[in-house]
């Protein structure tokens, strides 16, 4: 059993080419799952769709249990919001078994995108474009994840009672117009709960937009922790830390 655990740990945390491919495979699986969530919202609940739900739920559960098995302190994992998001997603994908009412929680799976340090390390090592634009990409991913999570909540709470929310695209349209404070008024959420959801979308959405704009328009700097004071961001050609004067050795890819 120890040998199996070591092999699993190597896949999730190792630096081999096989481990990198495995983690990229998990990222591709998460993206494919997100696409299925959107497409399945337009489909009637047929046995084929429910069967795919169960298969994805089993895969997500296997991934979750594997991560838990290699964690040195499994109990601490339950202090992370992403752990509970995974548990909610597992239950929702198994909705044909535990009840369709939990199905909307599957959108919480998107909270896992780019959330593991090992995957981020792989992306930094393998893709110079990601390394140069990491903060922009992560800010954009956070915004997109928020949009899809809120869209899932809007769709789940409104599509049975609100004639303006007939499918996932209607919910996405409302979320984006509220998030950008455009508010055309042709789609509104009903009831006190709907108004509260609208408030959350507007407040959190504007905050995430501002964060993305800040990253986009901030002067380009490289991320390299100063060994003395810990300052993270420096000018690309910096020789000394501007905070404490320590000599830096920032890796340079060289010029073309």
TrEMBL record:
Keywords: Ion channel, Ion transport, Membrane, Transmembrane, Transmembrane helix, Transport
GO terms (BP aspect): action potential
Protein name: Ion transporter
Topological type in the membrane: Multi-pass membrane protein
PANTHER family reported in the protein's UniProt record: POTASSIUM VOLTAGE-GATED CHANNEL PROTEIN SHAB (PTHR11537:SF254), VOLTAGE-GATED POTASSIUM CHANNEL (PTHR11537)
GO molecular function: voltage-gated potassium channel activity
Stretches that traverse the bilayer: 21-42, 87-108, 136-156, 196-213
This protein's GO CC annotations: voltage-gated potassium channel complex
Subcellular location: Membrane
Lineage, broadest ranks: Bacteria, Pseudomonadati, Pseudomonadota, Alphaproteobacteria, Hyphomicrobiales
Domain Potassium channel: 144-217
Entry keyword Membrane: yes
């Amino acid at each position: 059993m120890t040998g199996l655990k070591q092999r699993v740990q190597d896949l999730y945390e190792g630096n081999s080419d096989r481990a990198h491919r495995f983690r990229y495979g998990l990222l591709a699986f998460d993206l494919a799952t997100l696409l299925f969530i959107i497409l399945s919202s337009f489909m009637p609940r047929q046995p084929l769709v429910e069967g795919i739900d169960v298969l994805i739920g089993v895969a997500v559960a296997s991934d979750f249990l594997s991560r838990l098995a290699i964690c040195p302190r499994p109990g601490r994992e339950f202090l992370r919001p992403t752990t509970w998001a995974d548990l909610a997603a597992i239950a929702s994908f198994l909705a044909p078994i535990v009840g369709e009412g939990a199905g909307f929680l599957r959108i919480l799976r998107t909270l896992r995108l780019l959330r593991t340090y090992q995957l981020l390390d792989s992306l930094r090592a393998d893709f110079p474009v990601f390394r140069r634009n990491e903060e922009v990409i992560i800010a954009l991913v956070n915004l997109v994840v928020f949009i899809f999570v809120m869209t899932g909540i809007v769709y789940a709470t409104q599509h049975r009672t609100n004639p303006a929310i007939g499918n996932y695209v209607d919910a996405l349209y409302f979320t984006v117009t509220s998030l950008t404070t455009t508010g055309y008024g042709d789609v509104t959420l009903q009831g006190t709960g709907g108004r509260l959801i609208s408030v959350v979308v507007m407040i959190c959405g504007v905050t995430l937009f501002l964060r993305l704009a800040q990253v986009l328009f901030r002067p380009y700097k490289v991320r390299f922790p100063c060994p003395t004071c810990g300052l993270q961001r420096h000018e690309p050609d910096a020789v000394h830390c501007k905070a404490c004067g320590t000599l830096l050795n920032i890796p340079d890819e060289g010029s073309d």
